[in-house]
């Protein structure tokens, strides 16, 4: 099907980035080797909260190879606080703690030495005198009256408490014969890339340029560096050609960069800060959401859900950059794929004495999907209906698109029932139930888990304006430039970093498609930030849509220019000129044509043959705004959030050894519809990886704290990333419902799998536990927790 | 502006070691606490091995020592004396060329960010040298000490199976090849 | 060297010590690498024992035919130590001397009544495994001593073994592990039985009362269950991030019962005696 529509798009082509990675020739930040580079090691606070009474640097400064020690006060005097999303001036965020440290692991001072080992030796020799302070770890305790304040000056631990009502919630609740409520907890976890965050920076005082090499994935990185260091952003040169060793949202080391940038300017040498694993886990400010949901739904006897009240309480940790916005993004798909007609949503974000969060894959969507999908299962449960049937009754139907949800976003397209039917055609639902029942008969606890979830994609950041009226951003761009050189070779540029998403392949494929030229002949480069056009960076599952859109339009401009030049040179009206495979011919006399080489010759060297007013050369660029973007929220809190909505349907069979509590995923099927897939290998890989990440979040991963406020899962021996043993064989069944808003019908897929896997697993575990009359709604569903729950339930039942 | 006037302190006791890496002999003066990983990266410029956790769990630092996959972050350089060390640079046939395993990883897209990839490729090389016909379970077991956060492993397992198949095919007498 | 510098440490495979050093939890002043002492790397059959040198790599034991035939319980447990890549470097002596409460090797040494040998200066001495492990990461090894080897008794006759462990990821330290070895008499009753559990307390230990009760019986599953549960009832189990004390105590009994059942079936020739990770 796709072969007929496309030449290169959707075909099973290799990913061009892979060649450098398989030979170990990726250029990661730790591979940047500038002469005379000095290394940073960090002094971290051992207490959950403490006043810093004094910092004695003398012993450290006398150690071999040590050049400098900087503390929070010095840095605060020289720099401005880091950018925050909410207007919370009394909750300033800085790279090093000033006077008070607010979580265990927070960076207190930094040592600069010739080698990292020397810097570490000296960091140990810095004598910090602390006065431990009272602290609060739990979000509910943090909002209780009389709670310990994390930031005294703010007067409360609440950074955000906003309630939205969309539709007549009260009436819908009153009119509904049935209601239920559920509490669901998403545990503090994150994306935890295998490469920690790293930055190398050097200041050229004559050119007044700060060069920055970093494993970064963040919008407005250069802007934020310049603002904090009080230099123009045009004095910051971020090298986007650094390969990023995984991010999935979280690589936002602005505090690391400001610290290193300050020291590079102060000392006049290149400075390198590569977090070690402990620095990363404790103080890298890379934790993800920790969210408590109280969900209430009103529904009828058929399981049709009419209204929902959702309260989401987010434990941000000690400071906040953009992390509170992770409560806002899900508003754009607050009802998931369902026709729930009214919603009340209360979003509360509080600070506690835990590590600071940043953006994690899905930007809050994963937790929200978990809460929604658990509650839909509970509706089925109380009505004794099949959970799949309840979903079918509530899902938006294909013919109802475009579909506006109560919070004001219109979904672009979807065919949810067909996706489900395709999965069930592959895996017979009745047979799957029989398999579950066979496992139960063998003495296992076994359950089927379903999740039907959306992946909002295209990344328009209007949640910012929704949660902070001072922000009026209605734009979120991406750009592409194409230059055909004097020899006819094509170079396209993209203007941000990549962390494994295959953007170079994306750009090459789309331009090749438009120009009908082999994508492998198109060079894709990443100039630095001073030579770049705007890019919103790879967030919000947006690059296929946004960079793909920019590349498509730029290529169209180039094609139009080539066609115009040829028509002029052929002496025919432009509408008679036909572009094909890089050449242009006369529709009425196909033998009359101008080849690619002819057109390059004209544009580069024969301006006398160019149409009037046509720029010489062959250089085009396109800056692309989010389709459906350009509007701000209405006063009653409705907004068009993201443009596109991909759909994923998870169907799994899981069994639990009841004596041990050990879960095993026996079958895993995923129906996936992200519209047109530009490169199917990339989409499949990201989806598989997303599921694996979701398995981790559901079963294994947690940044756990003890009662003293110490992070006790700070190594890879305790923070458990799934290995190949923990990820089952997974079958993906694709469906394609193109988006009407995008250039090729594509939607996003960078968060796919992850956005539904935890919900599917939680539903399966609860189905498995059903015969025991117990349920569990707190992630991660760890072996010991399941084992103890089962043992307790059996003891109550009087079983063995 | 502060300048670096502090004199370098005399070197701590360094140690002279001889390493054989990718068939070449190197004599190095290093601090004995230098891990093999840091030695390869910082002293020999072999940056294909990566630091992930530096406590032996993630496997991103994997190299082959006498043909066996080991964690280079868990070995001090002096401990590697006398062994034949192979890094990703050593299994790459030549400039612009790929080994069958590397090519298979490209064919299935058995990676995304590329950070764990050199280690995965080396583990695959070691596995296939030992077992030319691994089952899926054996492949899963072989890579289970290497964490990949991007792929969920499916396309890595497929890459190794594909490489095995191709190598077996290439080693078959021509008349039996497909 | 060890005697002269109390902060000197012996390094063998380094698979535990080096991470500790990387995290700066261990700061030895000197490291003495003993892996090049060729005489400490061996696997030898010696009549009714199999002796393994301290610096023998775990992967060598994993592949060894003598171990597979004479010490099937050890052979079963070895693949559960860490990862292939850490077993390639990690040594038998290193793991034993590290004395992690959840270590598979410690459990097998205790279960099989192994004898550990060490050298301190010019003196050599032996310690039974059950006395060697005295606490988490703590052994009875005198300061300045270096572990040199371990001898495992070989059981003659109709022997069967069973090994089970539970963890979140297969390559991690076990939350709980259990090992059992059974020798059946001609009448099918248990002539000898050894049951050990690991991960549950400070050191691996034997379920002695259960062994006593089950010796001479047909290892009826209900009796086995009752005996192991009783043996574990008063144990003060560890609780941590990964598992509660109740979980460890309860599951230790379950795994011990399963290990005994496997060992029984294995001795009867009914099963291959495959180990189980959960």
Description:
- Chain A has 800 residues and is an alpha+beta fold.
- Chain A folds into three domains: 2-24 and 477-624, Aldehyde oxidase/xanthine dehydrogenase, molybdopterin binding domain (Aldehyde Oxidoreductase, domain 4); 32-133 and 195-245 and 252-283, Aldehyde Oxidoreductase, domain 3; 374-457 and 643-797, Aldehyde Oxidoreductase, domain 4, CATH 3.30.365.
- Chain A is built from 21 helices and 28 strands.
- Chain B folds into two domains: 15-91, Beta-grasp domain (Ubiquitin-like (UB roll), Roll), CATH 3.10.20.30; 100-171, DNA polymerase, domain 1 (Orthogonal Bundle), CATH 1.10.150.
- Chain B starts with 14 loop residues before the first strand and ends in a 7-residue tail after the last helix.
- In chain B, strands 2-1-5-3-4 form a five-stranded mixed β-sheet, with helices on both faces.
- Chain B is an alpha+beta fold and 178 residues long.
- The N and C termini of chain C lie far apart (43 Å).
- The model of chain C has no long low-confidence stretch (mean pLDDT 93).
- Chain C folds into two domains: 40-153, 2-Layer Sandwich (Uridine Diphospho-n-acetylenolpyruvylglucosamine Reductase, domain 3); 162-277, 2-Layer Sandwich (Enolase-like, domain 1).
- Chain C has helices at residues 17-22, 58-63, 65-70, 72-77, 84-87, 92-98, 104-111, 129-132, 208-214, 221-232, 245-267, and strands spanning 8-11, 30-33, 43-46, 49-53, 115-120, 123-128, 133-135, 138-139, 145-153, 158-166, 176-184, 190-198, 205-206, 276-277.
- With 278 residues, chain C is an alpha+beta fold.
- Chains in contact: A-B, A-C, B-C.
- The B-C interface holds B 32-33, 35, 54-56, 59, 62, 65, 68-71, 73-76, 78-79, 123, 141-142, 144-145 and C 11, 14-15, 18-19, 21-23, 31, 33, 35, 59, 82-86, 88-89, 170-171.
């Amino acid at each position: 099907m796709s072969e007929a529509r496309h030449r290169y798009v959707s075909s099973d082509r290799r990913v061009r980035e892979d060649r450098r990675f398989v030979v170990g020739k990726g250029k990661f930040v730790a591979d940047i080797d500038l002469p005379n580079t000095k290394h940073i090691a960090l002094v971290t606070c051992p207490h959950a909260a403490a006043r810093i009474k004094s910092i004695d640097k003398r012993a450290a400064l006398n150690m071999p190879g040590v050049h400098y020690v900087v503390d929070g006060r010095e840095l605060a005097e020289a720099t401005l606080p880091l950018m925050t999303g909410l207007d919370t001036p009394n909750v300033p965020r800085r790279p090093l703690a000033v006077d008070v440290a607010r979580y265990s692991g927070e960076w207190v001072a930094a040592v600069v030495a010739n080698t990292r080992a020397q810097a570490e030796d000296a960091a140990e020799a810095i004598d910090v005198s602390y006065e431990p302070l009272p602290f609060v770890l739990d979000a509910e305790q943090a909002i209780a009256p009389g709670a310990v304040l994390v930031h005294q000056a703010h007067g409360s631990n609440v950074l955000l408490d906003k309630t939205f009502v969309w539709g007549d919630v009260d009436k819908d609740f009153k009119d509904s014969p049935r209601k239920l409520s559920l509490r669901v907890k998403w545990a503090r976890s994150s994306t935890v890339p295998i490469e920690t965050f790293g930055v190398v920076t050097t200041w050229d005082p004559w050119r007044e340029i700060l060069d920055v090499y970093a494993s970064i994935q963040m919008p407005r990185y250069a802007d934020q560096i310049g603002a904090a260091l009080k230099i123009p952003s045009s004095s910051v040169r971020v090298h986007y050609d650094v390969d990023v060793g995984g991010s999935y949202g979280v690589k936002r080391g602005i505090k690391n960069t400001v610290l290193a940038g300050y020291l590079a300017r102060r000392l006049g040498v290149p400075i390198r800060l590569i977090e070690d694993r402990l620095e990363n886990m404790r103080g890298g400010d890379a934790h993800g959401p920790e969210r408590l949901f109280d969900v209430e739904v009103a529904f009828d006897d058929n399981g049709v859900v009419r209204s929902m009240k959702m309260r989401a309480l987010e434990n941000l940790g000690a400071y906040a950059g953009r992390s509170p916005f992770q409560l806002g993004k899900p508003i754009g798909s607050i009802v998931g794929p369902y026709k729930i007609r009214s919603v009340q949503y209360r979003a509360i974000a509080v600070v506690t004495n835990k590590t600071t969060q940043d953006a994690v894959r899905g930007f809050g969507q994963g937790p929200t999907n978990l809460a929604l999908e658990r509650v839909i299962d509970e509706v089925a449960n109380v009505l004794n209906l099949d959970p799949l049937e309840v979903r079918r009754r509530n899902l938006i139907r294909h013919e109802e698109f475009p579909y506006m949800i109560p919070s004001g976003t219109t979904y672009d397209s979807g065919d949810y029932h067909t996706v489900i039917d395709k999965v069930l055609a592959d895996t017979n639902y009745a047979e799957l139930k029989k398999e579950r029942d066979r496992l139960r008969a063998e003495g296992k606890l076994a359950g089927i888990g379903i999740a039907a979830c959306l992946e909002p994609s295209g990344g328009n950041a209007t949640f910012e304006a929704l949660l902070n009226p001072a922000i009026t951003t209605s734009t979120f761009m991406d750009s592409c430039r194409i230059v055909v050189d004097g020899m006819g070779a094509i170079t396209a540029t993209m203007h941000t970093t990549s962390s494994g998403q295959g953007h170079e392949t994306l750009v090459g494929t789309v331009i090749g498609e438009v120009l009908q030229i082999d994508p492998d002949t198109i060079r894709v480069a990443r100039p630095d930030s001073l030579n770049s056009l705007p890019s919103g960076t790879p967030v919000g599952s947006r690059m296929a849509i946004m960079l793909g859109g920019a590349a498509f339009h730029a290529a169209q401009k180039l094609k139009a220019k080539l066609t115009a030049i040829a028509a002029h040179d052929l002496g025919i009206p432009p509408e008679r000129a036909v572009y094909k495979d890089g050449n242009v011919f006369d529709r009425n006399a196909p033998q009359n044509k101008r080849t690619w080489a002819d057109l390059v010759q004209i544009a580069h060297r024969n301006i006398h043959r160019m149409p009037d007013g046509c720029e010489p050369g062959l250089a085009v660029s396109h800056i692309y705004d989010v389709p459906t973007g350009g509007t701000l929220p209405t006063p009653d809190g409705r907004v068009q959030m993201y443009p596109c909505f991909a759909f994923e349907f998870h169907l799994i069979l899981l069994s639990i050894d009841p004596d041990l509590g050990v879960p095993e995923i026996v079958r895993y099927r995923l129906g996936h519809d992200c519209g047109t897939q530009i490169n199917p290998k990339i989409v499949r890989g990201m989806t598989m990886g997303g599921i694996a990440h979701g398995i981790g979040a559901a079963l294994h991963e947690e940044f756990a704290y003890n009662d003293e406020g110490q992070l006790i899962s700070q190594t890879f021996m305790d923070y458990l990333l799934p290995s190949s043993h923990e990820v089952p064989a997974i079958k993906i069944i694709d469906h394609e419902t193109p988006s009407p808003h995008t250039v090729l019908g594509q939607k996003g897929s960078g968060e796919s799998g992850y956005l539904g896997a935890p919900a599917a697993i939680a539903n399966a575990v609860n189905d498995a536990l059903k015969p025991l009359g117990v349920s569990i709604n707190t992630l991660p569903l760890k072996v010991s927790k399941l084992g103890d729950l089962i043992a307790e339930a059996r003891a109550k039942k009087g079983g063995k | 502006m502060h300048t670096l006037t502090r004199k370098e302190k005399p070197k701590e006791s360094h140690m002279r070691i001889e390493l054989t890496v990718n068939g070449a002999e190197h004599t190095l003066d290093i601090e004995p606490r230098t891990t093999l990983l840091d030695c390869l990266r910082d002293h020999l410029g072999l940056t294909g091995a990566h630091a992930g956790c530096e406590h032996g769990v993630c496997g991103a630092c994997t190299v082959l020592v006498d043909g066996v996959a080991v964690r280079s972050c868990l070995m001090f350089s002096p401990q590697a004396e006398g062994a034949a060390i192979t890094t990703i640079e050593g299994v790459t046939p030549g400039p612009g060329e790929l080994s069958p395993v590397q090519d298979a990883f490209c064919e299935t897209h058995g990676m995304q960010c590329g950070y764990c990839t050199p280690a995965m490729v080396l583990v695959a090389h070691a596995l296939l040298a030992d077992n030319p016909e691994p089952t899926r379970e054996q492949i899963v077991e072989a890579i289970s000490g290497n964490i990949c956060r991007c792929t969920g492993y499916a396309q890595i397992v497929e890459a190794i199976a594909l490489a095995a198949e191709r190598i077996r095919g290439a080693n078959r007498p021509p008349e039996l090849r497909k | 060297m060890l005697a002269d510098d109390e902060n000197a440490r012996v390094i063998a495979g380094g698979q535990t010590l080096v991470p500790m050093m990387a995290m700066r939890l261990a700061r030895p002043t000197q490291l003495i690498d003993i892996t090049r002492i060729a005489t400490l790397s061996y696997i030898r059959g010696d009549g009714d024992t199999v002796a393994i040198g301290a610096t023998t790599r775990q992967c060598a034991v994993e592949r060894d035919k003598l171990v597979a035939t004479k010490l099937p319980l050890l052979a079963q447990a070895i693949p559960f130590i860490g990862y292939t890549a850490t077993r390639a470097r990690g040594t038998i002596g290193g793991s034993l001397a590290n004395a992690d409460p959840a270590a598979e090797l410690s459990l097998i040494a205790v279960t099989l009544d192994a004898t550990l040998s060490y050298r301190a200066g010019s003196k050599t001495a032996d310690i039974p495994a059950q006395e060697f492990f005295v606490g988490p990461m703590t052994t009875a090894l005198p300061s300045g001593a270096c572990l040199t080897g371990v001898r495992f008794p070989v059981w003659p006759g109709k022997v069967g073994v069973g090994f089970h462990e539970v963890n979140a990821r297969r390559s991690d330290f076990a939350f709980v592990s259990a090992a059992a070895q059974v020798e059946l008499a001609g009448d099918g009753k248990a002539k000898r039985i050894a049951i050990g559990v690991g991960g549950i307390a400070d050191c691996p230990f034997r379920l002695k009362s259960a062994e006593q009760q089950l010796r001479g019986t047909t290892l009826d599953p209900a009796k086995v269950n009752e005996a192991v549960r009783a043996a574990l009832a008063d144990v003060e189990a560890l609780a941590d991030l990964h598992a509660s004390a109740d979980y460890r105590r309860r599951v230790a009994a379950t795994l011990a019962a399963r290990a005994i059942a496997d060992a029984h079936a294995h001795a009867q020739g009914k099963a291959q005696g495959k180990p189980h990770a959960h």
